[in-house]
Design brief:
Elements (H helix, E strand, L loop, with lengths): L1 H7 L11 H4 L8 H16 L7 E5 L1 H10 L6 E5 L13 H5 L4 E6 L7 H10 L4 E6 L10 H7 L3 H18 L4
Parallel strand pairs: 1-2, 2-3, 3-4
Helix pairs in contact: 3-4
Length: about 180
Amino acid sequence: MRAWAGRLLELGDVVPFDYPYMREGRKSPDKLPRLIEAHGEALELARKGRKGPVVLVGKSMGSRVGCHLSLTTPVDALVCFGYPLKGQSGQLRDEVLLSLGTPVLFLQGTRDPLCPLDLLESTRSKMKAPNALHVVQTGDHSLLATKTALKAAGETQDDVDARLLEAIRGFLESHTLL
């Protein structure tokens, strides 16, 4: 996400943060309530002295935590890189998505085992919140396309990332946030 923080500067202010467990060098994340609390604290700090729309952008767990936070702390939009719709044990984690009212953009790879696209489509069809999906063909959980697919298309991962950035720009423009 550090590289994405740099790319997203093209669209507006970016304030990255790490969860406490990461700063402390622990491998296991804290429980969800603590993650939401830490995310909320980071958002509160980021909002100081800034005006304009607030868009929470997160990768995997960070996107899920951002969705949870948006249920209690209003933000203008959510951008989810590699949303983890399926937990490690295989259980579907769609409750927060079904509760959302905030517009959300999903950026998903076709090879992401944590978010099979058929399950995401089924969930999206039940969501109240406006939502959109940008798919990365052969993309994994980190939205990295296979080298074979890139070579066959005559592209690089930078080309894929440029399309992702344009998808984000288009989503934000469609919600008059840019």
